[in-house]
Prior knowledge:
- The relative contact order is 0.07.
- The chain is 55% helix and 9% strand.
- Residues 1-12 and 85-93 have low confidence and may be disordered.
- The protein has helices at 47-59, 78-83, 91-98, 109-123, 135-168, 170-176, 186-194, 198-202, 206-215, 222-232, 242-277, 283-287, 294-304, 314-321, 344-360, 362-373, 378-399, 405-408, and strands at residues 15-21, 25-32, 37-44, 70-72, 326-330, 333-337.
- Strand 2 and strand 3 (37-44) form a beta hairpin.
Amino acid sequence: MCASVERTWEAPTRVFCGIDWASDHHDVAVVDGDGKLLGRAWIDDDAAGLQLLLGLLVEHSDSPDDRIPVVIETSRGLLVACLRASGPVNLMAAARYRERHSVSRKKFDPLDAMVLVNILRTDADARRQLPADSELAQAIAVLALAQQDSVWDRTQAGNKLRSHLREYFPGYLAAVEALRGGLAAPLARTLLVAAPTPEQAARLTRAQLRAVLKRAGRQRGIDHEVERLHAALRVPQMRQLPMVERAMGRQAVALLGKFEAACVAADELAEASVELFEKHPDAAIITSFPGLAALSGAWVLAEIGDDRTRFADAKALKAYAGSAPVTRASGKSRTVMVRRVKNQRLAAVGFVSAFGSLRASPGARAHYDRRRDAGDRHTSAQRNFYNRFLGCLHHCLATGTTYSETTAFPVLPKLELVIAA
């Protein structure tokens, strides 16, 4: 069914469709080239609603040879997956278009469907179609985005747990500070379950600590770690009242449950993302870039996809990632500013990978140092370097070649100055 309702712009049409998306229902409007309303429907978010929508499109001359273009607010969901609509619309743009039809700023779904379809009717060239990514790329995007969300959830849960422990158990934070990963380390989480209060931690024997280390998966240096924790958990500290301390310990265990779930989800989704990403043909090209490993490469692929027609040139990709500056000119004034409207996820992974590549790529380090010597701050120099890397990435993906250090940062020949006698 999905293939039979693919939306394209290949054949000219004078009928347009707009869908105002909601969680349980959708408002549909169909207009002609002059903006006259031809049909309107209110459909549920189910198979019956999809059939009603397809029937409405067929009623207005939708056919395999002449598809009616459709515009919708979101790029995700079952409805979009089946329709493959003409492209998502920025909601702020829709809000501005709404003023053409009503001076009121109140949201009204039937009106919003008309607003969307008129955006498509009048400004179709300014709207992007949904990228035709492969099924594998879409599956990688699902896992990679979920993994990023779980990492952010883990950070938020860890911050809440750390803030709570600081109020009644700072000795525990000092004891696990030396562990790799801090609170997220398996030993730190296992230790807190075994002793959630200072009183219980101080009563832990060496044998009990050794059992905690083994449950956490520690295999080496157990004796040394036992002695370190045994001493660290007995360092005198300020204490809450006994009943208050036990109550706060119960709260810590509850917060630890959320933190534990976020840690497990982040690890499992990372493993699944990497496993699927390594099957993609673009994986070898993306991971050939310094600073990009399998997981960060999956994040990049999730945002840019594998539809080669999505970005017409490297400039489009740079603007999408937010690395390219924005130039504003009015009269004799000309201002160059940082691009604020961008793909925040792609920008985030870009800055992390750019920072990591400074050690892996001599050319990247030299480029960064030149920008710093020219007066750029760290963020500006890193953004400029990331902008250059995106140009290289676009070229490599378009040509099917891997990253080359000598091509990305060619060594210019030194000019010799000869003074005539």
